[in-house]
Structures are given as C-alpha cells and as structure tokens.
Amino acid sequence: MIAPIAVALAVGLLGWAYKALKPPPPRICGSPDGPPVTSTRVKLSDGRHLAYRESGVRKEEAKYKIIVVHGYDSSKDLGLPVPQELIEELKIYILFFDRAGYGDSDPYPSRSVKSEAFDIQELADQLQIGSKFYVIGISMGAYPIWGCLKYIPHRLSGASLVVPFVHYWWPIFPANLSREEFRKLPPSYQRSFQIAHYAPWLFYWWMTQTWFPNLSTEQGAMFGDQDLEILKSLSVPLNAGQEKIKQQGVYESLHRDIMAGYDKWEFDLMDITNPFPDNDGAVHIWQGYADRIIPFKLNRYISEKLPWIRYHEVPDAGHLMIFKSSTCEAILRALLLG
Description:
Blueprint: H1 2-21, E1 41-43, E2 49-56, E3 64-69, H2 84-90, E4 92-97, H3 113-126, E5 133-138, H4 143-151, E6 156-162, H5 175-182, H6 187-198, H7 203-208, H8 225-233, H9 250-261, E7 283-288, H10 296-305, E8 309-314, H11 325-337
Parallel strand pairs: 3-4, 3-5, 5-6, 6-7, 7-8
Antiparallel strand pairs: 1-2, 2-4
Helix pairs in contact: 3-4
C-alpha cells in the first residue's frame, strides 16, 4: 500500500515541478491569441519583428543620429526629456525600439548580449540611418551597448552608458570588490541575480513564486531621494504605454532580459579595445553617486581599467538621472560634441 502512495506522491510532485518551472508560451503580437500589432515594425533577416519609434528631426536632415536602448521593464515609449531646443540646434534624430520580447517586438529564446548588438545593427540598416550612428543604453539597456562595443564597433560614432548595468561575475572585477558590492544589494536582488547566472532554468519559478521576496517585489524600494523627486516632477510618465511592455509575457520580456544580462558572456570587458583610437568619437559612462541600484564603485573601477572611457560621476544623482532634463541635455552634449 505504501509503494503506490509513494509513487503517486512522486508523480504529483514531478507534475507540480514541471508546471512551476515551465514558462507559459508567449502571446506573440499579431498571432490569433496575441495582442494586436500597434507599432511600426521592421522584419529582421531571421523573421523576427522589431518595433520602433522615431523622434527629433527627419533622418534625412539630421546631423546626429542616435539609437536609444531602453532598460528593464521599459520600452521604446520611454519619456526621455530631450529639450526641443537642443534637437533643433544640433539637428538630432533619435530612434527608439522595443528590445526582443518587449512591447511589440517579437520574443527571441536565444536572446543574448551578441544578439542584441546585431539587432541594433540590423535595425539601423533596415531604416537606412547610415553607416555610423550613436548609441545610448540606459540601465539594463547598457549591456547591449557593451555588445555593440565588442561586435560592431565600426558602426559607432560614439556611445553612452547611463547608470549602466554591471555583471557581478565579470572577470574584470577583483573578487573582493565585486563580492563587497554584491553584498550591499538587498538579499532578494542577490538571490535573483545568482539564480539568473547559475541556474537560469529556475528563474521563471523564482520570479513567480510567492514564498520569498524576489527582484520584482522590491524594485521600487531601491529609488533614492532624487529619483523620487524626479518621479514627482515628470510632466509625462517614464514609460508611456506601460500596459504594452509585458503584453507578450513577463518571461519573454523581463525574465529573459535578466537572464541574458547575467549569463556567462563570450567576452570580458578587458577584451574590448578603444573603438576610437583617432579620437573621432568617445565612450561615456554616466554614474550617479547616490544610485542604490547600480554601485558606483564598480563602474568607476571599469573606467580606471579602460582609460579610454570618459567617466562622469554625478554627486547626489540616483538611478533616474537621465530623466532630469538638464542631465539628459548634458549627456547628449557630451556624446555629440565631446
């Protein structure tokens, strides 16, 4: 009698584990069971679609062309406060796009640092914005910029990494430094990043279980005083169309983003060489000293090891610094005018 009960319990546990670990299928935009396509899109060579939004002057009239890469839980509709006077003065064209799985862009199960870089390149080619362009990556959207610096440096006129994502397992960091900064994170962040790095097959379960706090349950608590002031002062929301960001599935957008970022990379930052040895462009890191999400010591260390990076550390600034109009203007002027 005991053996059949044990078998039944084992089968039940296996069934529960399978359901808990297996993410639901994506609700692909334009499919019979998916949300409608409401954005302009391009079709990539592998058949996927990327949704995009253009801003600023017409690309045919632009002197400077910038591709902006949004961060975690964001989209092409982020409300970047670029002063209109600056756009007209410098004749700036800005291209925003939904990264794979976000918004109206098709999911990509093989999403990686490398694939994100080549998505940017193919988007630029499809829209014919020229052989070279500038890139700005915000927060989690900075890891595709590291991919651009590694895989398509010849396409770049300049790059800015704003409050950029850091990978605590990058070989560039001394073990004691990365360990020290990692331990300053809330335990929920530590566990989430560890699972994404060491056991990504568990990540869907971890982010959807309710027994322990995870990354999604404590995200807002990481904003500092200046971040909260910026949120109060915004005339438009950080992310217009918030309801569309995760419409194809939280796993395809947020979860895959974290897993791709914290995966084992094909390269270390020390493998990247200066893409502008003739000083005809520059790479910038903008870091808020008061950022509670991204530790300033790690990005400061990167800039010391890669001295061709221009490092800007802003006192009292938090994670949302680019959404302050004066800081956004300073970031753009430094990128475009040197």
